[in-house]
Design a protein that fits this description.
16% of the residues are buried. 66% of the residues lie in helices and 0% in strands. It is mainly α. It has a single domain, classed as lambda repressor-like DNA-binding domains (434 Repressor (Amino-terminal Domain), Orthogonal Bundle), CATH 1.10.260.
Length: 74
Amino acid sequence: MTAVQKVELAKRLKLFRKDNDLTQGELAVKLQVSTPTVNKYETGELTPSLNVAAKYADIFEKSLDEVYGRIPAK
């Protein structure tokens, strides 16, 4: 994944959370990760594993392609 793709993924993940009125702490509980980890996902400092990306997809009712930006999110 390129640096640009990582930044775009981070923006998408943050948007999914904000569009659903969740705090980073609330999302961290759902993802079973720490709040600082969610922050790192949303700043592009850390890329979520495939397992975590799948949890994002489940929580926000998106496909993995939508999470990764391969197709526009609905």
